[in-house]
Each structure stands twice: as C-alpha cells, then as structure tokens.
Amino acid sequence: METIELQGFIERAQRGEQSAFFHIYQQFKGKVFAICYRLLSDRQQAEDACQEAFVRVWQQMPLFRGDSLFSTWLHTIATRTAVDYWRKLKMARMCDDDSELELWASEPPPVDQRDLENLIARLPEQARAVFVLFALEGHSHQDIAELLGIAEGSSKAQYHRARQLLRSWLDDN
Amino acid sequence: MTTEQQLDALIASLPKQLEPATDGWDALAARLAETPQAKVEPMPPSEQTQTTVAPAWMQRPAANQPRYGLAAAVAAGFALVTLWLLKPAPVSESQVAQQLESTTVTTQPHTQSRDVVQQLRLQREKLMAQVGGAQLKQLQQVPQGFENWQQQLAIWQQASSQLEQALQQQPANRRLLRQYQQLQQQQLKYMHKLTELSQAYS
Questions:
Q1: Do residues A144 and A133 touch, judged by C-beta distance below 8 A?
Q2: Does A56 sit within 8 Å of B158, measured CB to CB?
Q3: What CATH number should be reported for the domain whose range is A107-173?
Q4: Which residue among A41, A63, A139, B14 is least enclosed by CB atoms within 10 Å?
C-alpha cells in the first residue's frame, strides 16, 4: 500500500514536476542503488546505472497507470536498467580478457573481506547476477533466464555455484 | 562448515537499501531537465464513459470465451510485420492507419490470452528487428530533430514491454490494449517520418 503522500508526488511527477520527482528519488534511491551495486559490483558504474534508471522512470512516469504498485513498477525499470549495464560491463570485460577474469573471480577473496556483501561482489559475473536477482530481489529462475538471456537450467546451476562459492569463502575466513 | 541455513540467515540479514557515495540529485536533475517525458494521448470520449458500447472486438469476453481484443491485436501485429517487410520504401501514415483499422476486424477466436501476449511480444520484436535492419540501418543522414532516435525507440520498446507484462496479468483490460496499440502506432509513425526525412536530406 502506497501512502497518500507518495501518490501525490507520483501524480505531480507525471505532470512533469521535478520537485515532486525529487521526493520519489529520495525515497527509492537506496533500493535502486542496492540492485545496481550488487549486480555491477562497481560503485561508479552503479551510480551511473542508478541515475539512468531514474531518468527512465522520469520518461515513463506518464505511462504509469496504477495497475501495479508504483514501487513494483519502478523496481522493474531499475532491474532492467541494471541488467543492461551489467550486460555492457560483461561484454567490455570479456573483450579485455575472459580467461583472466574467470580465474580472478574464482580465487578466494582477501582475508579482510569477511562480510557477505563483499563476498557477493567477488562472485563470477553471471553467478553473481543470478544470485542477486534470485536470493536478494526475489525473481524466479524463469524471469532471470529471460532477463539475462540464458536458459532456466543455467540460472539454477549458476545459483547453486554461487552458493557453493559463498559457503566455501565463508569457511576460508 | 557453513550450513545452508547459516548462509540463508546471512542473506536475510543484508540491508534492503544501500546508499550511494554521493546524493546524485543535482546531476540527475540536470539530465531530467533535458529529458522529455513520454506523451500519453488522451482517451477518446468513447472510452471515458461506461455507457458507450465498445465495438464487439474490444468488449470483455465471458470467462469461457476467447479474448477477441487481444486476438485482433495479434492480427494487427501480423499485418504490420507484413506491411513493413513487403515494402522497402517507407509507408505513409495513412497507410499505417488504414492497415491498423482494417486489421481490427480480423480475429483468431481460439487463441488463448497468455499465448496471445507471447505472440504480441514476439511479433513486436520481429517487427522492430526487421524494420531496424531494412529501413533504419540504411539511414544516410539523420535529420535534424531526430538525433536521439535510437534512444526514442528504446523508450518505446521498454514501454511496450511493460504493457505486455501488464497485459499478461490483465488480458481483458481495454485501456492497456489501447495504449499498446497507440504505442505501436506512434513508433511506426516516428520511424516512417525518420526514414522519409532521411531520404529527403540525402
């Protein structure tokens, strides 16, 4: 259930009022940044993706009709934007050196990186994306397969791999 | 050894929100000032009142009946694909409008609503891929005012995708279907204008 105050901001933002959109931004930026950061594991990229997500939300505000919760609608846009950035980043890194990336990602993290947040950031890219979308964002493997352009079975396998790596790294620490 | 339960507990303890290093509003506000919002055409009077009888193909079907509105949209999708694929030169707005109008009477009464939404999505993607390949990639010169045409198309694509998701949940929602058709229409008109002006420039 969304508050009357938020509904007011939504309606005003739909009419193009930036000041109302500011309140929406303040309310949701933490959640949007979280999905961006956890998918991209890079603060600068995550901030760029977060900004892009809110630009897209702004553009599409007039199309929001209240058929779902605003937070759900916004979260869908944010997830898709983050996945777009994730895909670009993955391509760029693959062009640099794929084999080196995979080796780096499989190595145990340094001893001082003990919290789960940092361990997630160390996961191989696809395993990390699947893990974040499934375990933290609550998407189904079917949704994830569609979002990432992979088979549903691959999504399940990558999730299993991510959990195994995390458990192993937690034990190392 | 860390157990599955311990890992689940750690996952559950992660914060739902993370704060960026900088607030970011100033940079965002600067971008918003240059970013127009999507335009939504006002609903025609026939849809603003419940007393007006909608055309048969748009009426909500009974639970045990097929969804004619969506089936008609599928037919429109097929027709538009054909229209674009068979005509190497840009089509006129009147041709697009005429084609959309004529396809609304074509129905596929045995199509299931879920399948129909899936077909809508596939046809839209196919349409955009074909048009993008055949028409837009041949752009000799980008006309003035169309510099951000790729971004514009991306916005339409995203909006269409969201409407498809919504239609999946509410396949009998006439407003959603109408918006979906309007989006397709706007996008085709935009692409038509773009290719037409591009040819005039070159």
A1: yes
A2: yes
A3: 1.10.10.10
A4: B14
